[in-house]
Design a protein that fits this description.
Elements lengths: L5 E2 L25 H10 L18 H10 L1 H11 L6 H8 L9 H23 L6 H11 L21 E3 L5 E3 L8 H14 L5 H15 L6 H15 L12 H14 L3 H9 L5
Parallel strand pairs: 1-3
Antiparallel strand pairs: 2-3
């Protein structure tokens, strides 16, 4: 029986696919110096020129935070829906008002409430000027957003007594294997520090924020809740630099999942980054 292909985070362990060029445009050169640096430091690459970063308007931080607060229920519902949670937007709004909604499993309710609590926590951090894209903040947010699903929430894989994790089923594309944690999470912490150092060199804060989402999602630092935590961190960077927070709507779940596979299997983040920017709030 043929074993499934294995992909790791090392730059020499990727199975690459041919990147199809856009109509009337050359294929992005993922082998240039910048891309090689990104693969070495982050484990993936992207074509910056293909992504319309300029479509994210600048604004004052208080305005970005206020807009986020006004869209809080939508952010919570989108995040829950992407996880397969059956709550509707009106039901999420009702639950956030403190009214229990009948007909749902307790675990689904707990997930929505955890998403709401972590989203409010992020709002308060940015508003108070205390948000930083560092492990301590990520751990804190993770401990709030995924306490009911993740083993040892609030800690990287391996930092507690449990080992393993870090595998992602990609369907027909096989299985993605992130770095192991048998060393107590030391390798994961090294990956995080190295990746964060590289991200800090990106001058465009929008690019830095979206790249952080891809970074945290692909490296599977936690046993569960990696996308949710990485989305919160991305939005913290965005709002803290005077930009709107971004939510991936449920209506684009299929595209989102398809582009996640490209990020995991091909180490190519360009399509996912394009989708994220395309999901920016109107106005």
């Amino acid at each position: 029986m043929t074993e499934p292909p294995r992909w790791g985070v090392g730059s020499n362990q990727y199975k690459k696919r041919r990147v199809r060029p856009r109509l009337n445009e050359p294929a992005p050169d993922l082998l240039n110096t910048a891309a090689k640096d990104r693969e070495r430091e982050l484990g993936f690459a992207w074509d910056s020129a293909a992504i319309p970063w300029h479509l994210m308007p600048d604004m004052e931080v208080p305005r970005a935070v206020a807009r986020f607060e006004g869209q809080l229920a939508g952010h919570v519902w989108d995040a829950a829906a992407l996880e397969g949670n059956p709550y509707t937007l009106p039901e999420v709004q009702t639950l956030l008002e403190g009214v229990t909604v009948g007909g749902h499993r307790l675990n689904d309710e707990k997930q929505v409430l955890a998403l709401a609590a972590s989203t409010r926590m992020l709002h308060d951090m940015v508003q108070a000027g205390s948000f930083e894209p560092v492990k301590e903040v990520s751990d804190r947010l993770h401990g709030v957003v995924a306490p009911h699903e993740a083993i040892e929430a609030g800690h990287f894989r391996g930092e507690g007594s449990v080992r393993g994790g870090g595998t992602v089923n990609l369907g027909e594309a096989g299985t993605f294997y992130a770095t192991g944690c048998e060393d107590g999470g030391e390798a994961l912490r090294d990956e995080y520090d190295r990746g964060r150092a590289y991200l800090s060199t990106l001058q465009n804060p929008v690019e830095r924020a979206v790249a952080y989402f891809c970074f945290g999602t692909r490296h599977q630092f936690y046993f569960d809740g990696n996308k949710r935590t990485s989305r919160l961190m991305m939005n913290g960077i965005l709002m803290g630099s005077g930009h709107d927070a971004i939510s991936i709507p449920f209506s684009r779940r299929l595209e989102f999942n398809q582009h996640l596979i490209e990020l995991y299997a091909d180490a190519n983040a360009t399509p996912l980054m394009e989708l994220i920017i395309d999901c920016r709030p109107p106005g």
